[in-house]
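Structure, all three chains, one model.
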Amino acid sequence: MNDTAQLVQYILTGITVGAIYALVGLGYNIIYNVTEVINFAQGEFVVLGGLVMVFMTNTLHLSLPVGFFLTVSVVTILGALMDKLTIEPIKDANVLTLIIITIAVSIIFRGLAMLIWGRDPYALPAFSKAPPFTLFHAIIQPQALWVLGITTIVVILLSLFFRFTMMGKAMLACADSPEASRLMGIPVKKMVLISFVLSAAIGAVAGIVITPISLMEYDRGALLGLKGFGASILGGLGSFSGAVIAGLILGLIESLCAGYVSSGYKDAIALIVLLLVLFVKPSGFFAGKRASLKKF
Amino acid sequence: MGCEKKKILTLVSFLVIFPVLVNYIPAISNYLEVMIFAGIFCLVTIGLSLLMGYAGQISLGHAAFLGIGAYSSGIITAKFGLSPWIGIAAGIAISSCIAVVVGIPSLKLKGHYLAMATLGFGEIVFIVFNEEVNLTGGPSGFADIPYLHVGSFEFSSELTYYILVWAVVLMGLFFALNLIHSRVGRAWRAIHGNEMAAEAMGVPTSRYKLKIFVLSSIYASVAGSLYTHYICFLNPSSFDLFWSIKFVMMVIVGGMSSVWGAIIGTILLTYLGNEWLSAFKHFDVLVYGIILLLITMFLPGGIVSLPRILRSKRTNSR
Amino acid sequence: MKVSKCLGLILVFMFVIAGFQAVPAMAEDVYKIGAVFSISGRGAFLGEPEKKTAEMLAEQLNKQGGINGHPVKLIIYDDESDATKCNLAVKKLINKDKVPVIIGPTLSGTTLAVVRVVERAKIPLVSCAASYKIVTPVEKRHWIFKVPGSDRHVVSKLYQYMQSKGIKKVGIMTVSTGFGASGREELLRLAPKYGITIVADERYGPKDTDLTVQLTKIKASGAQAVVNWSVGPTQILAVKNWHDLGMKIPLFQSHGFGSKKNLELAGPAAEGVMLALGKVNVGPLLPDSDPQKKVILAYKEAYEKKYGEPISSFGGHAWDAFNIVVQAMKKAGPNPAKIRDCIENTKGFVGQHGIFNFSPQDHNGLSEKDLVMVVVKNGDWALLK
């Protein structure tokens, strides 16, 4: 195996891993865009997506599209419930309280997943049965292409939704000023609900596509959430393209560091880069004009 | 301040009666050990509550400082055979230096970005604990750390350690209360209220924020040293992200508005997590989450706000 | 004012809860055995089968009349894979439940966190964790024993096999947890003894989603074999990535791979993976002359009938710990010091993981002779000659 092939392999792996981070990061951004809350249960949506899909395919033996659709629906309902039961009833809460609430919800989701699925990891078959193929002597799993493809589709759909639909624009307005939006006749509560539904759905999709690559078990959410949070912060909170690019950058740094520097320190190096970027540009790479933040 | 005296008196008498009660009631005969850990965590959360409640800054990486104190003590006593007191001092020195280096750039950040920066810092320290195998023993940790001792007297029994830990906690508490009621404390509260206005009034906000960050790191570092010499073993998993989040939750559940909240929240969550919820068997994690959720939802001011809410309810119903 | 009320409230709350937890005094003739396992948290997949095994054995024992006619009460606590909780749980067993002997904890990290506690309280403890630090230095581990073989044994067995196949250059990849770190230490330390050079030394986190980079590096290093040392999902990822990369060099796994569930998860990708395992995993394959075959098959049948899932190495550790303790209690009764002496003098005990011979210098009692080399063939284990 020559040096180029090795480099190509590292880059391909980095992009695959990065796309996973990007998908999780997108979920954070949707809720943040509407509520300015970081939903720490985002990683749990991913876990639930993977595990519910395991139930649909391995236990109920449903076909891929049906299972996919049902899984996303189930997780979406959970996202809606989370908003209805825990976020909506809170009046005038500060951001810190809301964060702790989302952490509490993530503990509950994790507990439920442990009771239902136990502690063992689960595998899912790859979407397509094709064997791995080679590119410049490096090897690609077909499932990695699925991850990349689906990430791209999700980003395009989201951007279109927020830029060109009435509802999308209304949701963005809610974050800027809930009061003004309410006066303008925008149903803020409904918009927050939709943001939770959307990000739960995206989390579920992420869980479904990555489980064939990485397996899934009940307590993976926290780490996936951390990486996704890193991606959304590095990209600038609220920016979709930012989250995707930042996710890919994080994935590439990790994989190249593991390849050329030290596999033990790869996560630390990625975090140091993230911190340095924050210190130089305190609102991330691509923060828009709306980088103003509510304080704790 | 008179009101504070009453509270301190209540706490001290509670602490004195507690071991006696534990001794006479077999059903709670293991509560003293839990109280020792609660005391160690109280030190961390008192510092954290100064940072969160009074200066309005969040840290999701405080377990790192606990770990730095713990590893300083462990390495200096077990590897170099020096006195544990040198270990504690070294822990304080190292923690405060790191707090300055990390604090200067981080505290310029706001909100979620500060949360991410402290969280990232905590993770980096955690990875260093794991990877520097020659120094820290790596993930398998290192054992056989000596007990804390003064001359030939060893703090090895539960009761002596309970007294030691809570004496340190009380000292930390006095110091914190004195600060709060001083000019400095008023400046902090001004920062929390409105940073811009405070700056305009001539409060050097960034210097104050840094000072309090360093102070809270010292509290955590001392707690780490006490932890090490009690459990006599170290591995990185006691200082990970989840512990950082647990400390923040303790402060919030108790109530950010006062250091008393930190103490109450810490004792309550330590007993919930280690003792009371075991009755629920498999469901304990679930119940823990639900309790946490309910407290934050219905008591956003934490447990310390409970009496005020009850009082206002009573007057309303009249 | 409000603070005193709150403190008072906490105090009252404590007593109410304590009241619920208070257990009625037990008859004097009940023998207690304490146990701490990691039933949740990161070690849960180890602790769960251990707990199930211990509960099943206690039930069987009581049906047969207990220890010398005394019924056995097994008190199990979950340490949630956390050192602090484990420390508290062991203290509770000693101070509140007053048990004369403890089995567990599950993990090396949690076991080392209670070394001082049991040494001071003078209560024997039989750990289900593997690190050699648990029983060395033996002067400071008077009261502590462990039943899993050391990583040293497993690594020696693997290296002996490699030596016989002419493998000289090896790439290793280990997970950054206590399990992986301990394996890495031994892999690096013992390599020269068997004429082996470590040409790549890669690490990864326990929740990493892809190990392609580590394997690519090993592939490029000219290694003649890969050794992966981890537990949990990453050991499946190692197999999958190894297979997908089409690597021509053999993959050796740690003994942590020794569960049928792993073979199901890895599927056909696991064909050809080799590892050194305790005999408990391959009971039916053993020759009838093997003294362990009978006890392994009996355990396997009972466990699979009761829980409807295959046995694992880890449950086997609990079996060994429980039965060694019971054997000691048959002679010593509920006296901690006598139980300790009996365990230390146990010779020729036929267990799930080997034939135990304890001594004052050896609180583990196993050697690499108790392991067998196994290869994955047609989705099942097969013995390697």
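Chain B touches chain A through 44 residues (CB under 8 Å).
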